[in-house]
From TrEMBL, chain A:
Predominant localisation class: membrane
Lineage, top ranks: Bacteria, Pseudomonadati, Bacteroidota, Bacteroidia, Marinilabiliales
Organism for this UniProt entry: Ancylomarina salipaludis
Pfam families, per the entry: ABC2_membrane_3 (PF12698)
Domain ABC transmembrane type-2: 128-366
Record-level Gene Ontology MF annotations: ABC-type transporter activity
Annotated protein name in UniProt: Transport permease protein
Keyword Transmembrane helix attached: yes
The keyword Cell division appears for this protein: no
UniProtKB/TrEMBL annotation, chain B:
Record flagged with keyword Membrane: no
Superkingdom, taxonomy of origin: Bacteria
One protein family per Pfam: ABC_tran
Coiled coil: none
Keywords: ATP-binding, Nucleotide-binding
Protein's name in the database: ABC transporter ATP-binding protein
Domain ABC transporter: start-end pairs: 8-237
SMART domains: AAA
Gene Ontology MF terms in the entry: ATP binding; ATP hydrolysis activity
Length: 368, 248
């Protein structure tokens, strides 16, 4: 055990003394998260809006005025018929349609409520989600205004419908996506490079000649990155929560357990890569092309898998982050429990076991 | 040299990679405190044999005892009793001199107190006290190499294996390095060294010369020169190397 602690100490020295490692470890998650977060969730301005007013009374025109004067929305079209909605969306004339029900005024005055429907083009789900919350805010204000001083309050009920992406699948997707990318990068790339460095410098031979067992060497190499990746996970979730308001609806413990499982998977991938590469360069190139690009492109993080050609969809099944992102999304954004993600979890466990098995075999062959 | 006590005993060692025989029926003994030179052209099978003796690789067949231990069955015990230094110096460039010593001594199970006392003594002897907290990367090559050797024998092993330890350093530094080797040998540590330099071969007590996986000659430098009627080791080596089937 004392030997092992000495080994860990040395590993931490390597990491903390290498500016590049430190930057990748701690600078990158923060920068990526901020970049993605702010690029995706930018301010709304002059969103093109169409109105389908079945009531055409003073209340509806006042509401429309309020919305337009907020500066966030611009009225581009008045529709007469619900059948026009689809067409106007498809032509891209508008991003948003506001539908007032017939007798809006009457229902609002007499109560209990009048409803207004908000239809959005959710092919850009982040924007759509923001438009809705802005509109709800404006309607809410107006509601408070007209009810001021009244004893019986009547409500305007906004009903939202997202077109083209009704489940709003990729809102907040950047947090699970970045988590997968960063954990993959830190765990797999950094371990594979650090093991390859020992080989390249010739120190691996000395370690193998020493009384340390191969398993101890591997564990010593991997443990620091397990710890640092775990810290990274906390930082990413914390920043997502406090800076961007991305919730953790499900069990936090489950979320952490799944993250550790994914880190272990990435670490075993790193070990596997290092067994087939003899220099840091090769390890880095392998990690970049075999891990980073697929993680970003084929995991469903940025580009929806549904829209990909079939061969790529099939290929994406062997990309671990694909499953991890589903798990994280379910726990964080939908609040589901283990019963809905056990299949994905099992896939990750299977992949981890397979990689460890392969690495052990490779390691033995090399020793022979 | 004490010929009563065998530290390494090799009988009929074979190592095959597919159809290629890297080590072809090697048999030799190395005695306690001896400096044993292991010579041969590139690809003659030196490194392969040395890796087997260190427990880094398994032989295909043969009986091999190192430090009285069987390389098949007692690897873990064996590893505690040997030191190893490769041509790459094997110190961590981003750790300081003391951190390197502490790390390597630590994995051989030495206590912190023991490490500290012995490290101070060593740095005193090498004249490196001022560099104790400097990173290895900042030191000149010659110092790194002396330090690497001292680290390899820091845990007081019975045998130290040196794999072309003096590659790429100037003759003066090489000479100083050999002083350290003599000192270790006087202290009873057996030195098993591979080298390319024929002047270094003369410094060894006995040398073996490998050609195409076989040991073609094994004796003291004096006896070999006499036998091959050569004026120096260079000539001995060339005469033997010409027998090779794979000329470089």
């Amino acid at each position: 055990m004392k030997r092992f602690i000495g080994f860990l100490k040395k590993e931490f020295y390597h990491i903390f003394r290498d500016k590049r490692s430190m930057l990748i470890l701690f600078g990158m998650p923060v920068v990526q998260l901020l970049l993605f977060g702010f690029v995706i969730t930018n301010e709304l301005k002059d969103v093109k809006m169409a109105v389908l007013d079945h009531s055409k009374d003073e209340y509806t025109s006042e509401i429309i005025n309020k919305i337009v004067s907020s500066g966030y929305f611009k009225l581009v079209e008045n529709l007469d018929n619900i059948s026009q909605v689809d067409e106007t969306f498809r032509k891209g004339k508008t991003k948003l349609v506001l539908v007032f029900e017939p007798d809006f005024r009457k229902k609002l005055v007499k109560g209990p409520h009048a409803s207004v429907q908000i239809l959005t083009d959710a092919s850009d789900p982040n924007i759509a989600n923001m438009e809705v919350s802005y509109l709800q805010g404006i309607l809410q204000n107006y509601n408070v205004e007209i009810n001021r001083g009244k004893q019986v309050t009547n409500q305007i009920i906004p009903k939202t419908r997202m077109y083209f992406n009704s489940k709003l699948e990729s809102v907040y997707m950047f947090v699970p996506g970045i988590m997968a990318t960063i954990l993959m990068l830190v765990s797999a790339m950094m371990t594979s490079i650090s093991i390859a460095r020992e080989k390249e410098m010739g120190t691996m031979e000395i370690l193998l000649v020493s009384p340390l067992r191969p398993l101890q060497i591997i564990l010593g190499k991997v443990t620091p990155y397990l710890i640092l990746s775990f810290i990274n996970t906390l930082v990413i979730i914390g920043m997502g929560y406090f800076v961007f308001g991305v919730p953790v609806l499900g069990s936090f413990v489950l979320l952490m357990a799944e993250s550790v499982l994914f880190i272990l998977l990435a670490l075993s991938l790193g070990i596997f890569i290092s067994t087939i590469s003899n220099s840091q360069q090769v390890a880095m190139m392998l990690s970049m092309f075999a891990l980073m690009l697929p993680t970003i492109l084929l995991s469903g993080f940025i580009f929806p898998l549904r829209n990909m050609p079939l061969p790529l969809q099939i290929f994406s099944n062997i990309i671990p982050p694909r499953w991890f992102i589903i798990i994280i999304k379910n726990i964080m954004l939908k609040g589901t429990g283990f019963e809905f993600i056990w299949k994905e979890t099992l896939i990750l466990i299977g992949m981890t076991a397979g990689l460890i098995g392969l690495s052990v075999r490779k390691f033995k062959i090399r020793l022979e | 040299m004490n010929t009563d006590k065998k530290v390494i005993s090799v009988r009929n060692l074979y190592k095959r990679f597919g159809s290629f025989t890297a080590n072809d029926d090697l048999s030799f003994d190395v005695y306690k405190g001896e400096i044993f030179g292991f010579l041969g052209a590139n690809g003659a099978g030196k490194t392969t044999a040395m890796k087997i003796l260190c427990g880094l690789s398994y032989p295909t067949s043969g009986e091999i005892m190192v430090a009285g231990l069987d390389v098949y069955k007692q690897r873990e015990e064996l590893k505690k009793n040997i030191g190893y230094m490769s041509q790459k110096f094997s110190l961590y460039e981003d750790l300081t001199v003391f951190e390197n010593i502490r790390f390597y001594a630590g994995i051989y199970g030495m206590s912190s107190k023991e490490i500290k006392t012995k490290a101070d003594e060593l740095l005193q002897k090498l004249g490196l006290v001022h560099a104790r907290n400097k990173r290895i990367g900042e030191l000149p090559l010659g110092w790194k190499q002396k330090l690497a050797f001292s680290v390899a024998i820091f845990h007081n092993p019975g045998i130290v294996f040196l794999d072309e330890p003096t590659g790429g350093v100037d003759p003066v530094t090489r000479r100083q390095f050999w002083d350290l080797i003599y000192e270790a040998s006087r202290a009873g540590i057996t030195v098993f060294v591979t080298t390319h330099y024929m002047d270094e071969a003369e410094y060894c007590d006995r040398i073996s010369i490998m050609v195409d996986g076989r040991i073609e000659a094994l004796d003291t430098p004096e006896a070999l020169k006499k036998h091959f009627k050569a004026k120096d080791m260079d000539e001995v080596f060339l005469q033997l190397a010409r027998k090779s089937n794979y000329q470089e």
